[in-house]
Amino acid sequence: MALKINYLKTENKKPSNIVLFSDEKFKISSLERYIDKNEISYISDLLKTSDLKKNLLVFELNSKKKIVLVSVKDKLKSSDIEGLGAEFYTRINLGKNSEYSVISDSLKSKHENFLSYFLHGIKLKSYSFNKYKTKKEDRKISINVIGKKNIPSAQLKLKFKALEEGTFYARDLVSEPGNILHPDEYAKRISSLKKDGLKVTIYDEKKLKKLGMHALLGVGQGSIRGSYLVTMEWNGKKNNSKPLAFVGKGVCFDTGGYSLKPARFMEDMTYDMAGSATVVGLMKSLALRKAKINAVGVVGLVENMVSGNAQRPGDIVKSYSGKTIEVLNTDAEGRLVLADALTFTEKRFKPQFIVDLATLTGAIIVCLGSEYAGLFSNDDKLSKQIFSAGEQVEEKVWRMPLHKNYDKLMNSKNADMQNINYVGGAGSTTAAQFLQRFILNKTPWAHLDIAGMAFSKYGGALNSGGATGFGVRLLNKLVEENYE
């Protein structure tokens, strides 16, 4: 299915399907200039028996013509408007090829960018991943925005297009099967983003061994595929100011290693690289919209497999930081990848802050379900900024505790630390407490556990099921609101 949005000052032909904006009570007297009097009369009669609490109403005047009334309520947040656009798309995404004319001049709203957010919601909801279906839908939906008022500026169009492309790129990466998007292929795809203006550096196994990243390498040593650390740099300020840093877990497939996962739902472990996909999608968005910041994205790419060369429970590895880790459970692998990536990012780039994202623990789903990502941080200011950004774009986070008393649960008798808490409980917190040990210079840091948010079986407000791209819009808003 293809969606196309066109901007036209006037319609060349009489539109068949018309989208009009009304007040929240669906008063249509002000819309007489856009539709015929007999249609006004017909719709008025239907409104008497309609549920006026709905956000939009669709009236079929005949087999070839529909009128869609969109209720514009007072004090709508930007995320509400996006949701309204997504709801509109869901309603029209039926039947054969469709063409709708959105009459922008009918819109009266105190929100100056209403139409931009409405169309953004439509675009986000329209995403689908059907790359491997032999029979593809050839259905098309065209939306013609007609009028001279309320039209998004060129700058706004660029901003939302960049966000959509970054979010869709992240969703595409998460949606790919493990036999296609293994670490070797993933590193190549990131390298292709040089065309967008990113500086990409790939550290392969030889370079990682030289650097001493044995925590990351240990996770991937059971796979025939390579292990990589990839950095993406965007210099939008053209100066030497400290960058903002984003770090992502990129476990392209996670069997659990010798601490093998159950077979049921193991196929979903292709999305264990969703944290890295968010970072890649974000960096693409920042480059496309030419964000006026310096930023770096760092992702660790591995495949956690079982083989004669795979890591064993009880192995001890030395991390890039110099600290040693006893690997008691090979399925607690994401934190090992992030441990090396975090220390490297802090040491190499000396950033203003570090935000890492990972599908790290099932425990966070038990705690927060699929409504909030878990937020752990050593910095109150950064936490508040992330929380606020999440509220604005409806990619919500909830702050969870960190405390030195949890450290004793991660201490090892045989090494500096162990990678799981054998006592039980606080699985997400002890994982975050483990990660915090690899922030060596008190850099403001936040960890987002997105295990419940990266993939949706049933679909959400702005996605139709599958990969969500969670975090791209959240972190873009964080940057936009506080650092540009």
Provide a quick synopsis of the model.
This protein has 484 residues and is α/β, with parallel strands linked by helices.
How are the elements arranged and paired?
Blueprint: E1 2-8, E2 17-23, H1 37-47, E3 56-62, E4 65-72, H2 78-92, E5 98-103, H3 114-125, E6 140-146, H4 154-175, H5 183-191, E7 199-203, H6 205-211, H7 214-220, E8 228-235, E9 244-254, H8 274-288, E10 294-304, E11 315-318, E12 324-327, H9 334-349, E13 353-358, H10 363-368, E14 373-377, H11 380-393, E15 397-399, E16 417-418, H12 427-436, E17 445-449, E18 455-456, E19 466-467, H13 472-482
Parallel strand pairs: 1-6, 2-4, 2-5, 5-6, 9-10, 9-13, 12-16, 13-17, 14-15
Antiparallel strand pairs: 3-4, 7-8, 8-10, 11-12, 14-17, 18-19
Describe, in plain words, how this protein is organized in 3D.
Helix content is 32%, strand content 23%. It is α/β, with parallel strands linked by helices and 484 residues long. It folds into two domains: 151 residues, Leucine Aminopeptidase, subunit E, domain 1; 324 residues, Zn peptidases (Aminopeptidase, 3-Layer(aba) Sandwich).
